[in-house]
Each structure stands twice: as C-alpha cells, then as structure tokens.
C-alpha cells in the first residue's frame, strides 16, 4: 500500500535556484517602481520650483516696470484732468459765443441814434435790457432819441423814459434823462 502524508511537516523539499530568484524579483520590481516614482516626483517638484522662481522674477520685473511708469501715469492723469477741464472751458466758451450779445453793433446803433443837443453819460447793460443816461438840451431831444432807439434793429419797442429832470437854471438849462430799452438782437 501506498501511504500519502498530507501533513506538511517534517519533510523539507530542497529549493531550486529558480524558485529563490522569483522572490528576489518580486521584491526588486516594486522597489524599482517606487524609486522611479520618487525620482519623477522629485523632478516634478524641482520643475515647479523653477517655474515659481521664473514667475517671481517676471512679477518683480513687471513691478519694476510699473514703478518706472508711475511718473508717466501720474503725468497722464494730470493731462487727462487738464484735457477734461479745457474741454469744459471750450464748451462754456462756445455756449457764451452763442449767447453773447454783440456789443459793438449795439453801440454803433445807439451812437447813430443820438440827435444833436444830446450827450450820453452812462450806458449799462442789465439782463435783457440797456439803461442809457445822459444830458439833453430839451425834453424834445430826449423824445427824439427814444424814437430813434425804437427804430433800431437791436432794441425792441417801446423804449421807456424812466426819468427826466431839469438840471441847471437860466440860459444853459439842460435835462438829465434815463431810458430803458429791451434788447432784441436781429435774427442772423
């Protein structure tokens, strides 16, 4: 009869050199894989550090460039503010030119309206009106002056005689007067 010993004890089998080599490979391959992974991770870390240093240098260079441009940017801001101010002034000047009243033609018209025997002492412009003061040889001369002003292109009728007073006595008597006329520039 044949006996089979199923218990694994007592008897040792001899190991072959091939069987021992597979254990060594089983240990060496994971160790090599770990070593390769560590080298790769180290290389990645070093690459990231170099990239971070490059970015830091570029950031410092950009900051230096901004610092160099700071005076120019301040000057630009001042010039922009000045340009805005000048544009606003130009708009005001244009609006003023549109609304201004032509003084020279008005004075010429008033000068042509002055009759003989009269002299003007004051001419004031109020909003929308002109006040004329002066002396005349008679009240009729003042009335003639008011009628001449009413025919003017620059003044709207009626011309109001505000005040007349006799000034002086005797032969050289004169009349002091004051007139108000509404401004009405002719249509362009």
Major β-sheet profile: 4 strands, antiparallel
Helix content: 55-70%
Question: What's the CATH H-level superfamily name of the largest domain?
Answer: General secretion pathway protein M, EpsM
Report strand order across the widest sheet: 1-2-4-3
Q: What proportion strand?
A: 15-25%
Rg (C-alpha, Å): 55 Å
CATH architecture field of the largest domain: 2-Layer Sandwich
Note the run of SSEs as H and E. HHEEHEE
Could you characterize what this model shows?
The chain is α+β, with helices and mostly antiparallel strands. The chain is built from three helices and four strands, in the order ααββαββ. A four-stranded antiparallel beta sheet has the order 1-2-4-3, covered by helices on one side. A hairpin with a 6-residue loop joins β3 and β4. The mean pLDDT is 84.
Give the gist of this structure.
The chain is α+β, with helices and mostly antiparallel strands and about 190 residues long.
Describe the secondary structure blueprint for this structure.
Layout: H1 17-99, H2 103-113, E1 118-126, E2 129-136, H3 139-150, E3 155-167, E4 174-183
Antiparallel strand pairs: 1-2, 2-4, 3-4
């Amino acid at each position: 009869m044949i006996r089979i010993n199923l218990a694994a004890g007592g008897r040792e089998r001899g190991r072959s050199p091939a069987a021992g080599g597979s254990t060594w490979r089983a240990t060496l391959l994971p160790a090599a894989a770990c070593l390769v992974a560590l080298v790769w991770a180290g290389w990645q870390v070093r690459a990231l550090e170099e990239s971070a240093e490059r970015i830091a240098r570029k950031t410092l260079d950009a900051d230096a460039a901004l610092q160099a441009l700071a005076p120019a940017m301040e000057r630009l801001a001042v010039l922009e503010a000045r340009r805005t101010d000048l544009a606003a002034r130009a708009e005001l000047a244009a609006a003023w030119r549109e609304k201004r009243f032509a003084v020279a033609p008005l004075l010429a018209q008033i000068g042509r309206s002055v009759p003989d025997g009269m002299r003007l002492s004051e001419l004031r412009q109020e909003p929308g009106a002109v006040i004329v003061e002066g002396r005349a040889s008679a009240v009729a001369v003042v009335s003639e002056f008011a009628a001449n002003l009413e025919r003017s292109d620059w003044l709207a009728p009626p011309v109001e005689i505000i005040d007349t007073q006799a000034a002086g006595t005797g032969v050289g008597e004169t009349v002091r007067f004051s007139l108000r006329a509404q401004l009405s520039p002719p249509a362009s």
